[in-house]
Amino acid sequence: MLTKFFPQSVETAQVAVIKARKRRDRARVVPFEYDLEDYLVSIASRVKPLKSFGVNMLNAGIRAFRALWPGEETPTGIPELAKRLLEVEDRLNEWQESAAHVGADEALSFVLSWYDGINLDVLQSMRVAPPFLSDPELVAKRQERAYSFIQYANVQKFVEGPVSQADAEMAEEDKQEEVDEEIVVESASTATDAPSSGAANPSVCS
After folding, report:
1. How many CA within 13 A on the CB side of residue 70?
2. Are 127 and 134 within 8 A, CB to CB?
3. Can you give the pLDDT at residue 31?
4. Do 95 and 77 lie in a common domain?
5. Residues 8, 67: one domain?
6. Are residues 28 and 74 in the same domain?
7. Range of the domain at 121
8. pLDDT at position 185 over 70
9. Beta carbons within 10 angstroms of residue 190's beta carbon
């Protein structure tokens, strides 16, 4: 079974068993059927690296959580940490949106620092085929200048974007559903643990 589930550890386990046999009896180093002590040595040689891998995986998970959710307290339990790390895909999307928010704000800040009389409401739409969007040479210059703003954009800082009314209502509904589920689970647990009303206290005989 050990070979089936941990095939990569076979060679290491065999070497460990041979070394253990040499320590016990130098005359019996030729492979023969495993005895109980050989199996224990084989298992121990597999468990040690697995423990090391597990510790490394846990440390990697903690570092990933702290990087993706800065400022939030790291879960103390492995199941809770694993549950949160399953949200990585959504969190990475949120970080991409955050970087876009920061970059767009930085670019607009540069423009407004020179042209503070711009009507921001006009920027809600884009002109049709303006030179800086249609002329290849001007497009290249626009992109070169836009990319130069990146060094000033603090993309390491997570920035929440504006939340629409619909998104806010949906988030509130999801939160209420979670609370309702917790209440149902707690009520079911209480009902299961409660003693039956017809149960009598056992008598104590001397």
Report:
1. 8
2. no
3. 59
4. no
5. yes
6. yes
7. 89-152
8. no
9. 9
Do 115 and 144 lie in one domain? The reply is yes
> 81, 74 in Cβ contact below 8 A?
yes
pLDDT for 206 equals 41
Residues 6+ apart with CB under 8 A from 106: 149, 152, 153
Q: How many domains does the chain have?
A: 2
Q: Which residues make Cβ contacts (< 8 Å) with residue 139, sequence separation at least 6?
A: 132, 133
Enclosing H/E stretch for 179: helix 165-193
Q: Which two tokens stand for residue 122?
A: 């006009």
Is the pLDDT at 144 greater than 80? The verdict is yes
Q: Which of 24-28, 34-38, 54-58 has the highest mean pLDDT?
A: 54-58
pLDDT at 203 over 50: no
Tokens for 36, please give them: 């109980």
Q: Which of 60, 85, 110 is the last residue of a domain?
A: 85
CA distance 171 to 149: 34
Note the Cα 61 to chain centre separation in Å.
7
CA distance 191 to 173: 27
CB 57 within 8 A of CB 33: no
Cα dihedral 180→181→183→188 (10° resolution): 140
pLDDT digits (tens, 9 = 90+) for 146-169: 999 889 999 888 888 776 666 667
In the chain, the amino acid numbered 86 is: L
How would residue 83 be classed by pLDDT, with cut points 50, 70 and 90? very high
Q: Which tokens go with 82?
A: 């694993």
